[in-house]
Every structure is written in C-alpha cells, then in structure tokens.
Write a structure and sequence with these properties.
By secondary structure, the protein is of the alpha+beta class. Helices cover 38% and strands 19% of the residues. The strands form four sheets. A six-stranded antiparallel beta sheet has the order 1-2-3-4-6-5, with helices on both faces. Strands 7-11-12 form a three-stranded antiparallel beta sheet, with no helix packed on it.
Amino acid sequence: MSILRKLATSTAATMKLDSAVAKALALDPSNASVSSVGGGCSAASAYKITAKDSDKQYFMKLASGKEAETMFEGEFASLNAIHNAVSNLCPAAFGHGRLADTPSKSFLVTDFLDMSFRRGSGGSSAPSLASKMAKLHTTPAPIPEGYDRPMFGFPATTCCGDTPQPNDYRSSWAEFYAENRLRFILRFAEQNNGKDSQLNKQVNTIIDKVVPRLIGDDHLNGGQGVTPVVVHGDLWSGNASKGSIGNHTEVQDIVFDPSAVYAHNEFELGIMNMFGGFGSSFFKEYQQLCPPTEPKGEYDDRVQLYELYHHLNHYALFGGSYRSGATRIMKSLIAKYGGDKNEL
C-alpha cells in the first residue's frame, strides 16, 4: 500500500516552504525551493525540497485530516526506528506535524529517495536487501521509557494501509499478536463490513487455540520465547526498490512506507509471503543470516499465521475475495492445531 513511487522527475509547479517544515529541517525558507514530484496517491501529495546553498534534497508528503496526522506520526517513528538499526536501509525522517500556514494539512519530511533506477539494476557494492533485513531482524529493540527490558509494541500508532494499528506495549508476543493484531482487525473488519459469525468464530479459535500452540512464549525457542526486533510491517514488493538516499549517489536496496512495530522477526514474512516478489535467493540468504525460530518444523505454519493478519486487514479495507484467503488459512491452521473440527 505504498504512497511513494518513483521520484525521477519534478514538475514545473513550485510552492513556498512552510515555516513549520523549514523549522523541522533548519532551513531558511527564502533559501529553499519546493517542487511537486511524480508519485503519491489520492491521500497524499509529494514534493521535493532543495536547499539552494547546499543542493541537499528532502522528500515531503502533505495530506489533510486527522488520519494523515496519525499516519505521518507513525511513519516518522517507523522510519527512524528502522534507520537507527540499519542506516542504509531507509531514509531518515526529520519532522512531522501541522503546516503553519495551512493547519488543516499535515506534513512528513524525510531524506529524498531517488528511485529512477530499474529494480533489478546491479553494479552496487552495497549490502543486499536480504542482509540488511537480517541485520534489522537480529538487532534487539530498544528498551522503552518506563520499562526495564525491550517490549512488543511501538511508541506510536502506525497505519498499515489506512488501518490505524494499536501498539500499546506488552511483554508477551503471543498476547500482542492475539490482541493488538488479530482481535483488533476482527473488530475493524466487522465495523467496516458488518458482523460475520463464521469469521468471528474462526478468528477467536485462532486466538484461543492456534496462537498459544504456535507462537506461545513457552513454546518458541524451547520456552525461551523471542526477542522483539523492529519490523517494517508492510513489506510487500511495492515498498522495496533500488535507489539512492539523500545526497548519496550509490544505488542500493531500500525500503520505505513502513508500518513498524517491535515484534517477532517472522511477523515480517507474512505479508512478504502473501504478495511475493522477493524470490528464493532472498530467503536463502536471509535465513542463513537470520535462521528460523525453533521449532523450525513449524516455520511455514507461523508464516501462514502472520499472513492471516494481512488478509484480514485487506478484507477490512477492501472486502471481497480477501475474506476467502483468510478463511483458507484459518481452516488449515485450525485443522492442524485447533483440536476440534467443529471449529471449522
């Protein structure tokens, strides 16, 4: 659900740099140019900011409404959480908030991404996407303020597509996934599409029986559980590309438009598996650097369990055939781990 596209060319349209954005970037508005760039979507418009004295470039998104303010706050925190762990994987974010001159609009400013390169273009000596993602997924999450250890969750609401996800901290990964993802998205889907008794029954069986059996804290890694790491959260192939960040000229694998959370690293793989586009060579290299969680024999089923959330989210947002994808996964997992065929 990317709102960032190839930013290869700028249009002739220009605008004055808003003072709130200038403050976030520590720029003199009179010494900066702002031009619209190709890309964006109906929800946001995209711009390139250039500092005239240094030629340093930034990327800015603008959108209206409270939803945009929430989305940009989450994306700001997401980009910086990823950037702090692996600095050459995504752009850094410099600010977000309401425009000073047009308070009904919100902004997000980041490093500029030049993606005017073919996705498969080579020649770079930079680390591969697989190695960067493995580094991201083996870097323990920071300890949140007020806690004494890393937690599952995130300090801001993040949006997966248009879905605002609750990320209040929990010490248990199984509890976080059950409550903050599955039970939440069931309520959101019923809010958007109406009550569905069969879907409700299946999701609750997954929460009550499959989640503790497959990803319970006393089950993973021989009862040691998993360490929270930052995940992108919405990593389909449309949110990964080749490009250069900021004023760096090296073309490398990058990601953008994240919906981050401190989670089990394998949660990332659910949406990657759902839409494909990363290939066997990616996963071979990734797993050499970041091996599957024990028990390895249940790896494929865990990825299916994590993919389920994204089918439910797409059903909540778009309805239609995504419901059948969700029920297919649930029937398979309940048959294997639910213990009661009547729950199907």
